[in-house]
């Protein structure tokens, strides 16, 4: 590649990374204030401990680390939803509306409810992806990215950045790469997020998929790299099979 050239995937993750800085920072500031309230502290601690499996600390440094991790994780999770929604438009553009934040939405809670409408539409249209868009939108993990009203214009900017990219030119691993790019290996271990590079996935699949007629199950699917590459290998081994046959 020419010197200075950046692949579309790299440009995309860099744009998201730049747009995410302020939403994470502003919502962290709100979390620090809200955490002083015993009822909120109890709810957030329960979410971090029981749903995320994190250790809850009581010292100032540990508390700050937990709150920063909560803000990052929740904002990254929201970005995954936004990116996945945009990717679905490639197939469902006639049935789904493109994400947009009207100018009159200036409060975090209004934005949360507005975006949940898009996510509900995506689930209803596709009949799938409950695990991506969430089933309980009122859970504290889904509310965290919207605690700061000041973050609303920055979420609007981020969505506009997503719209600038042609998803047909982005690699299918982009959702997994978002976590790889934004979160250090140490943080990914804390979050319980692990992504396997495509060349490693292909190597492992080569031992498991020999004819192209195997049935594949990935009980810990995550970003879906193993399943997508399994489909590609089955198609390569048996190109005569239809899309539906390859999925079975």
Instruction: Based on Cα principal axes, name the global outline.
Output: globular
Low-confidence stretches: none
Question: DSSP strand (E) fraction?
Answer: under 5%
Distance between the amino and carboxyl termini: 38 Å
- How many structural domains are formed by the residues? 2
Topology order in helix (H) and strand (E) letters = HHHHHHHHHHHH
Number of strands: 0
Oligomeric status = single chain
Instruction: State the helical fraction.
Output: 55-70%
Overall mean confidence score, pLDDT:
84
What is the number of helices? Answer: 12
Structural class: mainly alpha
Biggest β-sheet strands, sense, barrel:
none
Radius of gyration, taken over Cα atoms and rounded to an integer in Å: 20 Å
Structure description:
- With 248 residues, this protein is mainly alpha-helical.
- Helix content is 64%, strand content 0%.
- The mean pLDDT is 84.
- Helix 1 (8-34) packs across helix 8.
- It has twelve helices and no strands.
- The protein starts with 7 loop residues before the first helix and ends with a helix.
- The protein has two domains: 8-170, no CATH class; 198-247, no CATH class.
